[in-house]
From TrEMBL:
One of its GO terms (molecular function) is rRNA binding. Signal peptide: none annotated. This is Large ribosomal subunit protein uL16m. GO terms for biological process: mitochondrial translation. It is found in: Mitochondrion. It comes from Poecilia formosa (Amazon molly). PANTHER family: 50S/60S RIBOSOMAL PROTEIN L16, LARGE RIBOSOMAL SUBUNIT PROTEIN UL16M. SUPFAM superfamilies: Ribosomal protein L16p/L10e. Pfam families: Ribosomal_L16.
Length: 258
């Protein structure tokens, strides 16, 4: 059986002949044309993005403006536990999030400011601090001094950071792939573990933590053992452990613990 097949290919009319069940050259030609087609992602819409007048990170003072500097104790609670402030996004889309506690020196802050301001395009990207300037005094004694003699003199100031706090926030008419390598370069130089995250990835992390708590199959969780005072464990637990249910040990965070 011989029949004629008429089709339009690329604006041209092609007529081919089919013999029974055999495929004509037209079918193979159409197959080759479709093989080169690609599906590109939709271009993001930046119509509602408004860039500020000063898109770059501002300079932070090395020493706070105080009339009289006062010495303080260590107060390790400043870096222990989860962050209660600056733990959500405000105006940006990407940020460097601390995965543990620690102290930021002025050198770390200046490193972040210089690196990000050099690498970003101020016409399409802006950056904002989510931390304050160094304000906590750190004392130190000189070399060769004997023990005693009171607390040493103030050597420098630091900024305490808790787990889950946003350090730097970026946004604008830019995708994550364009600035991710810059943020990773900065996050590796911080004195505590940090991670580059977007709004979606931060929400996904919180959702997974909540889902893990709801679907936990182990009936003996840290919270139930502590509240039930099993084997008198409350005698050796601190209020910090009772409040955070064993998810934090000092400045370290255990994301897999329920």
């Amino acid at each position: 059986m011989i029949s004629l097949v008429k089709a339009a290919v690329g604006g041209l009319t092609v007529i081919c002949r089919t013999h029974g069940h055999q495929q004509a050259p037209l079918h193979s030609y159409l197959k080759i044309c479709a093989a080169g087609l690609k599906t590109f992602p939709v271009t993001p819409d930046y119509s509602n993005v408004v860039l500020p007048e000063k898109p770059k990170l501002k300079f932070l003072n090395k020493v706070p403006n105080l009339k009289q500097a006062k010495k303080e104790r260590k107060k390790l609670r400043d870096i222990q536990g989860p962050a209660m402030a600056s733990n959500t996004f405000t105006c940006g889309q990407y940020a460097i999030v601390a995965m543990g506690g620690g102290y930021l020196h002025w050198g770390h802050i200046e490193m972040m400011r210089l690196t990000i301001n050099r690498k970003i395009d101020p016409h399409t990207t802006f950056a904002r601090w989510r931390i304050s300037a160094p304000y906590k005094p750190i004392t130190r004694k000189g070399l060769g001094q004997r023990m005693g003699g009171g607390k040493g003199a103030i050597d420098h100031y630091v900024t305490p950071v808790r787990s889950g706090r946003l350090i730097v926030e970026l946004g604008g008419k830019v995708e994550l792939g364009e600035i991710e390598h810059v943020l990773i370069q900065v996050a590796k130089k911080l004195p505590f573990p940090a991670k580059v995250m977007s709004r979606e990835s931060l929400e996904e992390m919180h959702r997974k933590q909540k889902e893990m708590e709801e679907n936990n199959q182990n009936p003996w969780t840290f919270k139930q053992i502590a509240q039930g005072n099993m084997m008198g464990i409350r005698k050796v637990l601190s209020p910090f452990d009772l409040r955070n249910h064993g998810r934090f040990t000092g400045k370290f965070h255990f994301p897999g613990r329920v």
